[in-house]
């Protein structure tokens, strides 16, 4: 039996492969604070959202987390759980923002929102399941500051790419 694929399937596969490659390369970067990474693969997710819609962005994000964890050897580990919770929180925030304001929120704004939501999602799971200690709350301002900084960086990248390649129809 031959499975038929659509143009959207090919688009998701291509974008997910790009996001997975970035995710794997980024996992090799040293981090001064555990769990703090630039989130460069988020650029692909946000561009998928603004250029191709919510469904493509959700598939790209979820496939990145799943395949990225398989390739880095973290599948079903606490790292995977944190990555998945961050991606889910980020996708939820992007869905709400996109539904409420649509294209009026720029790729820069979406990346900042996604980075902050991602960090909050990871922090909530870390606090609830991994380190349920009140002292962990002292890290939250540092983590959210890092998320804001990296959200601005990835958002600037996404905005620049989007200006060069505006909306493309699927």
TrEMBL record:
It comes from the Bacteria. InterPro entries: Hpre_diP_synt_I, Hpre_diP_synth_I, PH_domain. The chain crosses the membrane at residues 12-29, 41-60, 80-101, 108-130, 142-162. Keywords: Membrane, Transmembrane, Transmembrane helix. Residues 1-23 form the PH domain. This is Heptaprenyl diphosphate synthase.
